[in-house]
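Researcher: I've been going back and forth with a colleague about how Carbohydrate kinase PfkB domain-containing protein might be arranged in three dimensions. Neither of us has a model we trust, so I'd like an independent prediction. The organism is Arabis nemorensis, in case that matters for your notes. Sequence below.
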Amino acid sequence: MLCFTNLSPLRLFSVSGIFLPSPRRQLTSFRTRMSSSFSIDSVSPPPDNGIVLGCGGIAVDFLATVDSYPQPDDKIRSTSLKVQGGGNAGNALTCASRLGLNARLISKVANDSQGKGILEELQSDGVDTSFLVVSKEGNTPFTYIIVDKQTKTRTCIHTPGDPPMVPTDLPQSSMLSALDRASIVYFDVRLHETALVIAKEASRKKIPILVDAEKKRDGLDDLLQFADYVVCTAKFPQAWTEMSSNPGALVSMLLRLPKLKFVIVTLGEEGCLMLQRASKEASESKETDIESLLETLKHRTDLTTTFPTCVASETTKLNASGIGTVSGRLFLGTAEKIPPEELVDTTGAGDAFIGAVLYAICAGMSPEKMLPFAAQVAACNCRALGARTGLPHRTDTRLVPFLV
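Model: Here is an independent structure prediction for Carbohydrate kinase PfkB domain-containing protein. You can compare it with whatever you and your colleague have in mind.
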């Protein structure tokens, strides 16, 4: 049986041509007063309708911390090693479960020690694994992650699972049971063929869908057509729309995806930007240039506080030059300013943020409350090694002001 725990340092060899991910994806918030008047006893119960179904990637993460990233042909030693569950969907649903949601997961592992370890870890965090497919042969997905203490970055080398998941792996009866009473469905686009089948059924049942648009992937365009909510990385909006700026790209996304209610682009330590579609057209005829509005929001941002903050516009007609106009609100958030000595690892910060957004949607939080809450959850996760070690529970005192 595979035990996910801390191990002794290992010797590491450098690998040329390793993919270096984009900077961490933390996020936003309105100014929250961390008052001592809040207590654990004042925390509200989880939402009654808090069932989230996720479909996507899970893996075993081998996290090695090094003093600095090796040069080609170097041989170095790690300063610590942790082995734990990972994968976007596994991380986000673990976060949602710790926050109080009833989390169900559809994915695939092999019947090997790593797969068994993943199942045990998810179950210990309250994630329903009864819909996971276990292959009799093959290998469970795994990822080598090198955490650079000097630059506070991480490099990931992923090995996919084999055989991959296909729609026929999931019986129709299992899919319908997984969707039963679900409040929201989440996709990280890893298992796109299976995800699309689930998305069509969820849409037919009028269950909201959130898509994690980390980067362009096979099947992403099809899934986005079903999305009510999108959370994406800093480079995705411009890459997907071929627009020259993120504000213009967000307008383009809402115009191209008429079902979309909001899109959030995460900007790492710079916070995030969110565009929310208005439920009805703005009454005034005057249009506001979204680029100029963003500059106005930047000037209103409180840069003196270390806690996450968020400023928002009124509902208005937002115009992007050469693209078009949508009625909605623009939100600009800041990330928590984490002291350098407390910042350990940014692995999974974006997944933590999404887990918190899933909770916030089920709980009916306003964007002004949702964004700082998600930013706080992501910041908590950055204070420990690995994607799950620092994920907070709903009783964490740092979350109390958001949950009263």
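Researcher: What would you highlight for our discussion?
Model: I'd start with this: The CA atoms of residues 188 and 374 lie 17 Å apart. After that, consider the following. Confidence is low (pLDDT under 50) at residues 4-36.
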